[in-house]
């Protein structure tokens, strides 16, 4: 080795702005007999944390497993979208749960997780996070974003994907943390660092998310979806908005988001006065030019 040569060169520690997650300290903080999470594994890279845990669920993995990847090569979002980011620039985490509630309530699990991410961003990051139905996590567009030509009023910072197999559900969270504007995949996305988060330490944010998720899952199993539903409605910026709903099969409908019912469905009030519950749709907020 030459004098002055960096020992970290070529390792995950070469970029100190994006250090790897530390499995041992996360396990000590989040797993154990008195804690909700049973196991926690951090891998440098995988195709998809959701796909990995779904396979483990099919093989009988018990409730309470957490899998985190510093990098994903085949991360998935809702509607088959790809979720890819530079190594160690975000959080890609999945949890395996076997909910002790009726399957009729399972639709609330992804919405509950959206509430959990807003819990963490509000409490730890100091950011006014809201939700777009069903489970996109949004932050207000900054003046800088608008100066750069963005016409919307919110930007997406996180997405959630829940998938079921048998009596298990795997919930995946993808959260942008330190991506630059150039590293983000679409103009409608943002990251914690771009929005002035109080912290961009991924360990800190991950701990906040997993602790909030454990607490809300326990409340959900004890009391059903009522408490989750009330908080979700408070934080859902879709409610009251004019929206366009892209439905399965290529059908598009516009109207006003009139609320979220007790099954987690979006109530779409169309111009003819009909109110339809939507259980699956890609929703676009239509910006009112009078308030732009």
TrEMBL record:
Classification via CDD domains: BPL
Domain BPL/LPL catalytic residue range list: 24-221
EC class: ligase
Keywords of the record: Biotin, Ligase
EC number of this enzyme: 6.3.4.15
Alphabetized GO MF terms: biotin--[biotin carboxyl-carrier protein] ligase activity
PANTHER family xref list: BIOTIN PROTEIN LIGASE, BIOTIN--PROTEIN LIGASE
NCBIfam families, sorted: birA_ligase (TIGR00121)
Name by which UniProt lists this protein: biotin--[biotin carboxyl-carrier protein] ligase
Organism: Kineosporia succinea
């Amino acid at each position: 080795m030459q004098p002055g040569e960096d020992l970290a060169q070529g390792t995950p520690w070469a970029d100190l702005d994006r250090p790897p997650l530390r499995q041992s300290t996360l396990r000590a903080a989040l797993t154990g007999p008195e804690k909700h999470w049973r196991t926690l594994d951090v891998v440098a890279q995988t195709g998809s944390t959701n796909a990995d845990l779904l396979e483990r669920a099919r093989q009988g993995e018990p409730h309470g497993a957490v899998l985190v990847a510093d990098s994903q090569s085949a991360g998935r979002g809702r509607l088959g979208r790809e979720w890819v980011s530079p190594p160690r620039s975000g959080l890609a985490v999945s949890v395996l749960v076997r909910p002790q509630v009726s399957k009729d309530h399972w639709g609330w699990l992804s919405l509950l997780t959206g509430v959990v991410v807003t819990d963490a961003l509000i409490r730890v990051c100091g950011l006014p996070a809201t939700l777009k139905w069903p489970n996109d996590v949004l932050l207000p567009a900054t003046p800088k974003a608008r100066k750069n030509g963005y016409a919307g009023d919110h930007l997406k910072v996180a997405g959630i994907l829940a998938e079921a197999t048998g009596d298990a559900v795997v919930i995946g969270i993808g959260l942008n943390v330190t991506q630059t504007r150039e590293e983000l995949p679409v103009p409608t996305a943002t990251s914690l660092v771009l929005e002035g988060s109080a912290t961009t330490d991924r360990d800190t944010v991950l701990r906040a998310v997993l602790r909030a998720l454990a607490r809300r899952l326990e409340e959900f199993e004890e009391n059903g979806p009522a408490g989750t539903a009330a908080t979700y409605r408070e934080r859902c910026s879709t409610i009251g908005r004019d929206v366009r709903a892209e439905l399965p099969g290529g059908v598009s409908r516009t109207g006003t988001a009139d609320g979220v019912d007790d099954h987690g469905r979006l109530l779409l009030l169309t111009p003819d006065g009909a109110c339809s519950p939507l259980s699956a749709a890609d929703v676009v907020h239509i910006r009112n030019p009078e308030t732009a």
